Amino acid sequence: MTRYVFITGGVVSSLGKGIAAASLASLFKLRGFKVSLQKLDPYINLDPGTMSPIQHGEVFVTEDGAETDLDLGHYERFVGIQMSQDSNVTAGRVYSNVINKEREGSYLGSTVQVIPHITDEIKNLIIKGSKNADIAFVEVGGTVGDIESLPFLESIRQFSLDLGKSKSMFVHLTLLPYIDVTNEIKTKPTQHSVKELRSIGIQPDILLCRGKNHINQSLKKKLALFTNVPQDAVFSAIDAKSIYDIPIMFSEQKIDSFIMKSFNIKDRRLNLKPWKDYKKKVEKCKNKVKIAMIGKYVDLIDSYKSLNEALYHAGVINNKIVDIIYLDSEKLNKRNIKKLSEMNGILVPGGFGDRGIEGKVLAAHHARVNNIPYFGICLGMQISVIEFARNVIKLSNANSTEFDKYTKNPVVALVEEWSENSGKRVLADKTKMGGTMRLGSQECIIGHNTLAYKMYSKTRINERHRHRYEVNGNLIGDFEKNGLSFSGRSKKGNLMEMIELKNHAWYLGCQFHPEFTSSPIKGHPLFNGFIKAASKRKV
Question: I need a labelling partner for 343 at 20 to 30 A (CA). Which of 35, 36, 74, 118 fits?
Fold first, then answer.
């Protein structure tokens, strides 16, 4: 029977519940247990797909095409198992399911209420997300005390009561602020956070105390006294140089052993070698490589979380420290574009909307004419096509219909707009946001004797997508005879998946998002190749 570990957070948000959950799950995976991970999000949106990255951070896309919380990226990178649409449950999804059931008459005339109907639906989704794992790690988003989190907290309280203490436990991640003036670590915020949690019927079994330093036995004793948590169940979650150090740090404190003992599970040998080897590789990285990230969500770097991690992974593979220079594409212009010559490589990421587009076009142009390694992802690939069309093919004002619906030279448009073989432009009807989105894993066929093939060493790959616009397939001949190659295409050959330039240091664009499948141990072929090429550029 599955055992459940529920991870909650207190005092402030963004403490790292997702990384804590992923680190604990990793330790059990390395012991040979079958594990699952799930994120419960209290917001009313059905999913984060239409939310601003500046507000919520990156939208992580799973293999089955679910738009999910960025913490699921941590889950995959730490544990090496694929998440799915069942791995992220929002309040919006829960309420939608319940309302649909009510409309279908599933409740037999009952008054539909938060308890038991909403809480029962949450419990059912938790069971569905556990996928018969030995141990399921369930992270509750938000902070204890948030009104929107209450149905989820009530659900896991009921769930634990149903299972019994031998099958469930609560891990509470909380902040221990350090006051420089008095040289003190303050416990009062944690005391109040646990008090709030206990007031709704949840007694934490483990305290994970986030702070700058390890807590001593005296502080542990004090926390135990005021929170009713045993002293040996109070652990440190200190700031780390790398998030990938955290599984080792947790193991050194024997948090995983404490959980196994609580569950009365027979101990299994822990193989920490993958994380220890990775840490050694990180420590060997000395020389920096500067990568310009040309984005429009740079005010919150978590908007590009998987991209950042993929670049760091590739840095370790290449024995380099990747220094990401975030540049707002809205502020890039002809007067300051030369600053990009100081970079080892240029990356233009995905995004939606017309804000900052011309700055990205300038960046792609600068990389092309100055032989600077360039990596365009999703929108970044489309940008490079637009730039090439304007400046090489000489299609004046070439654009995407996303940015100029009535452009005379649409080189990028909705998939449906290029549905006729004649090339006649067919404007798609307006649909609900996401209705035309190409999501999840899709097959790409790679041509031989291409840079793409050199990176992957195979002709068939599967990568995750999140887009609704495509390169105009009717113009492929014009592009290729002028030097822009389409090295990757969809299975049917009608959708352009990858572009590249010959006689360039490294110039590649892909319609998919390779960052979602990068791992700290292996990196990703495209990122590994990009950083390798960037490392060779002298600045």
Answer: 74
